[in-house]
Amino acid sequence: MSASEPVAGILLAGGRSSRMGGGDKCLRMLAGQPILARIIERLAPQVSDLVISANGDPSRFAPFALPVVADSIAGFAGPLAGVHAGLEWVKAHRPDLRYAVTVATDTPFFPPDLVRRFLAALPGAPTLMVARSAEGVHPVIGLWPVTLASELEAALGAGARKAGAFTDAHGAVEIDFPPLEIGGRTVDPFFNINRPGDLAEADCLLRDETR
């Protein structure tokens, strides 16, 4: 498997952000720019295409000039529905691609070599892969064969909602990612912003990172 194989990027931005007080968490400001802007800057060099998976009025993402796809599964079915929407977009717009990488849009420190490391670990057959760090498995950070779209749709139709349960059931290979060192601190590469305190911590970390 070539580590240079083109891969689409799916930005999962469909969460309700209840612990942040609602609204689009990824549009909150972090170190002077929306969190989503940093996510895009980090992932764009790693992929051939980017699509935002989000529900509601897509015009709020207009400044990013990226396609926005909504869930085809009704009722805010969670990140699995967002993955499915993204895979369907890839099938329709980039049928030549075999894989898509998914990234949660509240993880501003994910590795700049995320895709390369996933691809380097792939065996010959199409394989679902998910990230693991010292904090555990991160099923929404993964490399998905586009061919899984139909199985994912069937699972969602049968009531599946937990990303980890789906990836486990489909034999996902876990790829380990080491911690980061930022400003003398050890940081999980998939540190995610859930609460206002996390946002403040991420802001401090970014200041340390750029010193």
Relevant terms:
211 residues; alpha/beta; Spore Coat Polysaccharide Biosynthesis Protein SpsA, Chain A; seven-stranded mixed beta sheet; two-stranded antiparallel sheet; 11 strands; 22% strand; globular
Quaternary state of the chains: single chain
Q: Tell me the number of helical segments per DSSP (H or I, 4 or more residues long).
A: 6
- How do the strands of the widest beta sheet line up side by side? 5-4-1-6-8-7-9
Please trace the helix and strand order, writing H or E for each element: EEEHEEHEHEEHHEEEH
Query: In whole angstroms, how far apart are the ends?
Result: 37 Å
Number of structural domains: 1
The main β sheet shows up as:
7 strands, mixed
* C-alpha geometry: globular
CATH architecture grouping? Alpha-Beta Complex
Could you tell me the CATH topology label.
Spore Coat Polysaccharide Biosynthesis Protein SpsA, Chain A
Compile the SSE list and pairings:
Elements: E1 8-12, E2 29-30, E3 33-34, H1 35-43, E4 49-53, E5 68-69, H2 79-93, E6 99-104, H3 114-121, E7 129-133, E8 136-145, H4 149-157, H5 163-169, E9 173-176, E10 180-182, E11 185-187, H6 196-209
Parallel strand pairs: 1-4, 1-6, 4-5, 7-9
Antiparallel strand pairs: 2-3, 6-8, 7-8, 10-11
Helix pairs in contact: 2-4
Structural features, described:
Helix 2 (79-93) packs antiparallel against helix 4 (149-157). The longest helix has 15 residues, at 79-93. By secondary structure, the chain is of the alpha/beta class. The strands form three sheets. The protein has a seven-stranded mixed sheet, sandwiched between helices. Strands 2-3 form a two-stranded antiparallel sheet. It has one domain: Spore Coat Polysaccharide Biosynthesis Protein SpsA, Chain A (Alpha-Beta Complex), CATH 3.90.550.10. The mean pLDDT is 91. It contains six helices and eleven strands. The chain is globular, with a radius of gyration of 16 Å. The protein has helices spanning 35-43, 79-93, 114-121, 149-157, 163-169, 196-209; strands at 8-12, 29-30, 33-34, 49-53, 68-69, 99-104, 129-133, 136-145, 173-176, 180-182, 185-187. A hairpin with a 2-residue loop joins strand 7 and strand 8.
